[in-house]
Structure formats: C-alpha cells, structure tokens
Design goal:
Length: about 525
C-alpha cells in the first residue's frame, strides 16, 4: 500500500517535514495491516491449533487447511501481535489520510478481496460460533425447532453435527433471528452432514456481504478520495474486522450490511423521502431478522424522520413488513431465550473489574443502572457528535446509539462492533475513530486465541486470564472515559488539515453541522 500512496496533489505548500511524516505513517500502516492479515491467515490454516475448532476433516478439498499444529505460545503471542499491529496499522493509515495521504482504492479493494477469499476458504478461527450456526441449521433441516432444542439434545440423537456439541453453547437454544435460522438451514441443506461443508457455505455468504459493503462504500464515496480511503481502512482492509467476520465467520456482517444500506438510502434532499423511508425501514427490519439488537437502529431512523409524520409512518410500515411476519413465524421461544440472557456479562467488558460476583451475571438493579447509563450516553452522543453527514440524516443518530451500546452494555463481543464500524466508515474523520479502533483492538485481544483454559504451558493460560479479565477491561474502561471526554470537550476535530482540504471540510465542533460538504 505504501508504494502507491500519494500526497494531496497539485501545487500546495506543505509544512516542512510533512512528507517524511506521511511516508512513515504509510509504512507503519502497510506493515501493520499486511503483517496482521498474514498472521491471521497462517493461524487459520493450521487445523490443529488452539484457535481452530476441532472438527472432522472435510471430505473434499475445501475448506483449505494444513494438518499441522502451531504451539500455543506461538499462536497466542502471534495473535496478540496481529491485533495490535492491525489496530495500530489502521490508526496509522487513518492518520496519514487525515494529513493528506491517499491510498489507491483499487489497491485497497484488491488487498481486501484476497484477504476475504483466503479467510473464507480456511477453517473458522478464534470462535466456535460457526459450529453453533451449523448445529442450529442442522436442527432446522431435520425438522426440529432450534429455538427449543439444545445442541446437547441433538447430540443425544447421534447426529454427526450434534456430536460437536462440546464446541457450542450446548445447553442453549438459538438466540439468532428468523433470517439467521433460514440462512443456517440453507447452509445445512447444501453442506449435508459435514460440519466443515456447512460452515464453508456460511463463510462464503459472509464474504459476499463483506465485499458488498466494501464495494458499496467505494461507490458511495468515490468522489472524495480521503473519505474513500478512510472507509476502506476502517472496513475493507481492517484486520480486526476480517478476523471477526471472515476468520470467525460471525453472521453480524449480514445484519450490518442490511443496516448500512438502509440508513444510507435515506436522502431527503433527493425528493423521494417516502420511498426511501419505506425501504430503509424494511432493511432495518431485515437486519433485526438476523439479530434482534439491530432494532436499536430503528430508533435512529425514527429520530432522522421525526419532522415528517408521513415519512416516519412509511419507515414504520417498512419495518413491520419485514420484521413482524418473521418473528410471528418463530413465535415466543426466541423472545424467551433472549430474555433469559438478561444481565449476562461478557468476557470483554470493563464490568469484569467491578466484582468477581458479577463475572457471569449482573444483579437486576445493576442491570437497570446500565440500561439508564446506555440511554444517557446515547443522548450525550446525539447532542455532542458533530453532524458530518447532513445529507444522510440517519447516520449520526445511528452512530450515537450503536457506539453507546458497544461501549457501555454489559455483554459485548468484538464482532458486535460491526454495527458501528460500517456506519463510521460513512461518517467523516474525527477523533471518534481512535476511540472505536482502540475499543475494538482491546476487545479482540481479550478473546484471543480462544479458550484460555486449554492453553499450555500453565503460565500462558494464567497470562491469558489476566489479559481477558484484567488488562483489557482496563483498556476498555479507558476507551469509555476517552469517549465521554470527547463529548464533554467537543474536541472532535483532528486539527489543521492540508491547505487543499481546508475549504472542503470545516472545523468540527460538537453539536454543529458543517457549512457545506
């Protein structure tokens, strides 16, 4: 990437030392992102290594894998390094773009395509969630209800996919939305009784959605090279996103793709508000059909359309068209399953620092306080975030809601950040980028390389425990403090920009919109 990077072009006078600094940032971004992706690919290819779920060998040539085992020590430190290099490389690239550098979009898309295809064709790594997806899909294919049946119960039938229950939430029925179940059923139908084949189909659909978002962002921002390059750094070649969505195979990318499309469709200035509002509502409903948490973004849509009753009604109608039939079809078991998880604390949250008794669940009173804090932080962000995309009125409220949820909710996983990163890629550059990338880096490290209990030697397992439950929660809390600090001070602007850009983007102040785009 570095070799193709250019400055702002034209006859501008850059401050002394600007080009060497840009070159340094360019090399840091190239080395960080490139080495991170290569480490992730190498680890995913070693089928017997700690981050790769132990599954039967595939019958055919796919997924591609090497019958080797990498030492736990090498894998653990390698993946921690990959997360740090990846997050640092993205930050360096964003800093370079903010100072006038431009990365060719074709180069970034090519790198993204190669990385996505490689990770899609390799076994899942870093998570066993894809095995859960395959299990629920198998249940649906056999005529069972995945919202009532558990992986343990499927195992008791002697089913070959059920035998992998030790890799799943074995006592828990599905928590995923109706469209997710249909997707998992389709993969199970195509993959048959082979877990690697089912997971391969799931990962291929993730790859299509991921690249679809990358191409959509590229087309949407093609007239602005700075925003175009920034979007690709945050999404297309971001190793942290590639690890979560392609290596890990998490279905969040499908929900995020629908949500980003829906929220960016809303352009009142084009004079098609009712049609766009209807379509936006339908797409948010589709996103929530994959994961119920995406219903939060319906609030952003409502806020963006609050001045037009007819447009608001059209969006609500669209939401109901895609949401109501799906959830009526699966019935109340899904809602019961979601309610049963109320108060459950995730490993990669700062709530691990509060009390050991909260390690798995928060008391109802504390859970209620968190819900109030989420609402308060969302309101603060909505008030203080600069509106850098007034032509897309749903982006700012969607960012306010999604980032508040990601930073303060008690159950989080790094792939949940997909909800915000796609939207952030559309938003203009601010210091919010650093907070989000820092939070994503810390939460990714907290879950690497996988099950820390099985790591050898023993001291490595203990170090993994400290990383997951002590070190990274402090970093996550620091990210929250930094976010609140930005809201209070309003210091969103990245500082002076190159002369060629000063007329293109005014200084950002909290609660104000740019004079023009």
């Amino acid at each position: 990437m570095h070799g193709e990077m250019s400055g702002t072009g034209g006859d501008q006078r850059q401050p002394a030392g600007t080009y060497p600094r840009l070159a340094t940032l360019g090399w840091l971004a190239t080395i960080g992102i490139g080495s991170s992706i290569l480490i992730m690919i190498a680890v995913s290819a070693a089928r017997q290594s700690a981050p790769v779920p132990a599954m039967p060998r595939p019958a055919g040539p796919l997924p591609v894998e090497l019958p080797i085992r990498l030492p736990d020590l090498l894998v653990t430190f390698g993946l921690w390094a990959a997360a740090i290099l990846g997050g640092g490389g993205v930050v360096a690239g964003l800093a370079a773009v903010a100072r006038g550098a431009r990365y060719p979009a074709r180069l970034l898309l090519t790198v993204a395509f190669i990385a996505v295809v490689a990770l899609a064709l390799l076994p899942p790594a870093g998570s066993t969630d894809t095995v859960s997806y395959a299990t629920y899909g198998r249940m649906a294919l056999l005529g069972h209800n995945p919202y009532l049946m558990t992986p343990n119960q499927l195992q008791q039938t002697g089913d070959p996919i059920g035998k992998l229950a030790f890799l799943t939430w074995r006592k828990d029925p599905s928590l995923y939305g109706p469209l997710a179940t249909i997707e998992q059923w389709a993969a199970a139908r195509l993959g048959g009784a082979s877990a690697p084949a089912i997971i391969l189909w799931l990962k291929l659909w993730n790859a299509i959605a991921f690249l679809g978002v990358a191409l959509g962002l590229d087309r949407m921002l093609r007239s602005d090279p700075a925003r175009r390059a920034r979007a690709h750094l945050l999404w297309s070649v971001n190793p942290l996103m590639l690890w979560a969505l392609l290596a890990g195979g998490h279905l969040d990318v499908l929900a995020a793709a629908a949500a980003v499309l829906g929220l960016t469709l809303l352009r009142p200035s084009r004079g098609r508000t009712l049609v766009e509002a209807l379509a936006a509502g339908m797409l948010i409903g589709v996103a929530a059909d994959f994961m119920a948490t995406y219903l939060l973004l319906a609030l952003a849509l409502a806020w963006a359309l609050r001045r037009s009753i007819t447009a608001l009604a059209a969006a609500a109608a669209g939401l109901c068209l895609t949401l109501a039939p799906a959830y009526l079809w699966v019935g109340t078991p899904l809602l019961h399953n979601l309610a049963a998880r109320q108060g459950k604390v995730g490993a990669d949250t700062f709530y691990q620092l509060i009390s050991a008794s909260y390690r798995h669940a928060l008391p109802p009173s504390t859970s209620a306080l968190v819900e109030l804090a989420f609402a308060g932080l969302a309101a603060l962000l909505l008030w203080r975030l600069p509106d850098t995309t007034p032509e897309m009125p749903a982006i700012k409220p969607a960012l306010a809601i999604s980032i508040a949820w990601l930073f303060i909710w008690y159950y989080q996983l790094p792939w949940y950040d997909t909800m915000a990163v796609g939207l952030l890629a559309v938003y203009r550059a601010t210091r919010l980028d650093w907070a989000v990338v820092g939070q994503l880096t810390a939460s990714t490290i907290a879950l690497m390389p996988g099950s820390i209990r099985a790591l050898h030697p023993r001291w490595l397992s203990e170090l993994g425990y400290l990383s997951s439950f002590r070190f990274m929660p402090f970093v996550l809390f620091g990210a929250l403090v930094a976010l609140i600090g930005l809201c209070v001070t309003g210091a969103w602007s990245l500082g002076p920009r190159p002369a060629s850009q000063r007329s293109g983007m005014p200084t950002l102040r909290a609660g104000t919109a740019p004079e023009r785009l």
